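Feature request, filed as a ticket because there's no other form

It would be nice if the structure record came with a short human-readable summary line next to the tokens. Right now we just get the raw output. Example of a typical job, pasted below so the devs can see what we mean:
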Amino acid sequence: MTTDAAVLKSLPAARKRRLMGRTPLEWCIEAALFLAAASSVVITFAIVGVLLYESWEFFRHVGLVRFLTERQWAPMFADPGYGILPLVCGTLVTTVVALAVAIPAGTMIAIYLSEYAPHRVREIVKPVLELLSAVPTVVYGYFALLFVTPILQRFVPDLPGFNMLSAGLVIGVMIIPYISSLSEDAMHAVPMSIREGSYAMGATRMQTSLKVVLPSAFSGVTAAYVLGIARGLGETMVVAVAAGQQPNLTLDPRQPAATITAYIVQVSLGDLPHGSIGYQSIFAAGLTLMLMTLVFNVAGYLLRKKYREIY
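Raw output as currently delivered:
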């Protein structure tokens, strides 16, 4: 008995009939779908492999302790500095400013569209809101530099032309559609019976929205927040244009600074030779950014898992 025949014999009868009744076209379609699904895994491992390989070459010349603790980042200078902390601080500060705008605004928009807006208004407002995500990020960058920064300088006279505050505010506006759209979808999927049970207990619409619907949809809302965090961490053009490209170890959003992505762009457009320590530094910076994003994704997964168990 062949191996294929033995496998078919061990399968349930219904499954066996489905497998034996397939045409060659169906087998080809299934194989194509499998390859499409597997390609994302292969590409992810390929990216990680390239980052690890090039970063290993970098860390052979620069110790990991120096990379994590040194307070200056200047790999291309005559007196080089290889501390990633200034880039990490710039990335985190702009992301925190962006989330301070996007999370409250996106959540309130999602609650309004899901619980208060008439169906016709929702069908008009939501696509219009999502158009914000179609605007090129370089446009957002010059909007931050030429429009938002001059307005902020009226309230903060000593605010420099390049600063993390205006860049973070515009990134926050840019990621509002991601948070509001996904959060609204999660809240809209909450069964109406849960809302009706809340109303039957005497709760108002606001109490139902905040204390019943939002916790019930918190798994999906958390996914929207994690996507917003990843989008803020990975934003490039806004910070490259509006925040400056000078690494600066500071937590003050009014100061100019460089982010990890802005540094990668700056070096990638230069004339550094392949294999040099400056060239390899972009892979070490990219690996750092990937690990930061991974930490936030894992934290979001654990938080979603916890709330799934509760609700």
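Something like this underneath would help us a lot:
The domain at 81-310 is CATH 1.10.3720.10 (MetI-like fold).
The chain has one domain: 81-310.
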